[in-house]
Amino acid sequence: MKVRSSLRSLAARPGAQVVRRRGRLYVINKQEPRFKGRQKG
To answer: Which Pfam families does this UniProt record tie to the protein (predicted)?
Structure first.
């Protein structure tokens, strides 16, 4: 999982979902599990 200040490039990928959990933004991608991310802060 990548920790990034901006998730826009991860969220633009096909199959990506932006999810808010415990006050943090996550990107989950079931098609490409490599492209998971959490927003910093």
So the answer is: Ribosomal_L36
